[in-house]
Design brief:
The chain has a domain of 119 residues: Cytochrome c-like domain (Cytochrome Bc1 Complex, Chain D, domain 2). The chain has nine helices and no strands. The longest helix has 22 residues. The chain is elongated and about 70 Å long.
Length: 252
C-alpha cells in the first residue's frame, strides 16, 4: 500500500512540475529552437505509430500508370515543391524555416504507399503539413503517390519535362493555381540563383510617373491628349471625356 501511495505522490509531483514548466513558459515555442532529443524522440515515435496504425486500414490500388504519374507530377509541382522541393531545386526560404524540416520527397519517394496516402490526405498536426484531403479527391492523392514512387533518381530535366507534359494543377476542386506555368520547380519558371520559386506575373505593375509622389492615374478611359503634370505631387487627372465649357453654350 505504501508503494502505491509513494508512486501516486511521485506522479503528482511530476505532473505538477510539467504543468509548472508549461505555465511559466519553460518550453521554447520557436521553430528556430529544436526540441531536446528526448522530447523530439517522444513526438516522433507518437507521430510514426499514429500514422502506421491508421495506414493499416488503407487499401492500396494499382499504381504506376503513366496517366497517374503525369497527374501526380503536375499537382506535386503546384502544391508541394515549396516545402518538399523537387529534383534540381535548391532549398527555399520556407523549407529552411520549417521545424521539423520537411523531407525532400522526390528523393525519399513513397516506400510505403499507404502511409504516404494517409499523410497527404490527413496532414500532420503542428508540422506545417496540410490535410489535402479537404479539397483533393482520393484519386488525385493516389496519383501523387504514384508520381513519388517514380521520383527517386529522376533528373531535373526529366522532372521538368514530366511536369510540362502534365495537366498542371488539377484535382477536382479547390484549385487556386489552374495553370502549370506558374508552378515552382518546373520548366519555364524563372528561378534566381538561390533556388527561389518563380515570381507570378499575372498583372503588370503600373508604369512609373515622372513626378515624384504623384498617385497613379486612372486609365479607365484613354485621353486623346496625354496630360502632363506641371508640379510635383499633383493629384491624378480624371481621364473621363471632358465636359463642355459653360462658355460654349453662350448665345444658344
Amino acid at each position: 500500500m505504501s508503494l502505491i501511495k509513494s508512486g501516486l505522490i511521485l506522479a503528482g509531483f511530476g505532473a505538477a512540475a510539467v504543468a509548472g514548466g508549461i505555465y511559466f513558459g519553460a518550453i521554447h515555442p520557436g521553430a528556430d529552437q529544436p526540441h531536446s532529443s528526448v522530447v523530439f524522440k517522444l513526438i516522433e515515435t507518437a507521430r510514426d505509430r499514429g500514422i502506421s496504425m491508421r495506414a493499416q486500414a488503407v487499401s492500396v490500388p494499382s499504381l504506376g500508370d503513366a496517366a497517374q504519374v503525369l497527374s501526380g507530377a503536375g499537382n506535386y509541382a503546384a502544391m508541394c515543391t515549396t516545402c518538399h522541393l523537387a529534383p534540381g531545386m535548391a532549398p527555399t526560404e520556407l523549407s529552411q524555416g520549417l521545424y521539423p524540416a520537411p523531407p525532400a520527397l522526390t528523393e525519399l519517394g513513397a516506400p510505403d504507399p499507404a502511409r504516404a496516402f494517409w499523410v497527404i490526405k490527413h496532414g500532420l498536426k503542428a508540422s506545417g503539413m496540410p490535410a489535402w484531403g479537404t479539397s483533393m479527391a482520393d484519386e488525385y492523392i493516389w496519383n501523387m503517390v504514384a508520381f513519388l514512387q517514380q521520383a527517386p533518381g529522376m533528373t531535373a530535366e526529366q522532372y521538368q519535362t514530366l511536369v510540362a507534359s502534365s495537366g498542371g494543377h488539377s484535382h477536382g476542386g479547390g484549385e487556386s493555381m489552374p495553370h502549370h506555368e506558374s508552378m515552382p520547380g518546373m520548366a519555364g519558371g524563372h528561378h534566381d540563383d538561390t533556388g527561389a520559386a518563380p515570381h507570378e506575373h499575372a498583372a503588370q505593375a503600373p508604369a512609373p510617373h515622372d513626378d515624384a509622389g504623384a498617385p497613379p492615374h486612372d486609365h479607365g478611359a484613354p485621353s486623346p491628349t496625354p496630360a502632363t503634370h506641371d508640379d510635383a505631387g499633383a493629384p491624378p487627372h480624371d481621364h473621363a471625356p471632358a465636359a463642355e465649357s459653360a462658355d460654349a453654350h453662350d448665345g444658344h
